[in-house]
Amino acid sequence: MVDVKLDCCAECDALLLGEDPQPERRQVTELPRIEPEVTEYRRHIATCLACGAQNKPDWPAEMSGSSFGPRLQATVGYLTGQLGISQRGVDEMMDTVFHTAIALGSIPAMEQAVSMALAQPVEAAHAYVQDQPVVNADETSWRENTQRHWLWMGATPLVTVFLVLATRGADDAKRLLGAAFRGIVGSDRWSPYS
Questions:
Q1: Domain total of the chain
Q2: pLDDT score of 192
Q3: Largest CB tally within 10 Å, which of 40, 58, 76, 179?
Q4: pLDDT digit string (tens) for 104-119?
Q5: SS3 for 108?
């Protein structure tokens, strides 16, 4: 908070005392400059003075298996997966906004790592939806490169899952809802839901 006050009257130069109980307010929102946090790990190899064996410690468990930490990888995954920014656009954004140089070829590797990290939670979400007594479902056309696919959606009050499938048939409805689903499906009554 910055208080802006005058010490003297602008007209007569007399001393000004007291506090304004209702000062005019104006807020300015700014983003801090983002600086990457780089941690260098150094693994020291020591030679035993007794037997001459080379002793190499394990890398710390908290060290990422990649040159990029989990938050950076998640940011790249969010930018490409959720926002649909191209890999070149992400490369430029990482350099311009985050002041982090990334080789363009590292971006698909990070996308793959994020996909692998999300596989189990997505599977758990899908199992949750299939276990609910009421699921709202729908599907719409979806392009994968030049191929036409279908984006299927199963929604519950707490969890929604999406599947991109090649077709729009009853087998796909079973993949979304589960072959043994016996609950209520809210849908547009497209025949595969029967």
A1: 2
A2: 82
A3: 76
A4: 999 999 999 999 999 9
A5: helix
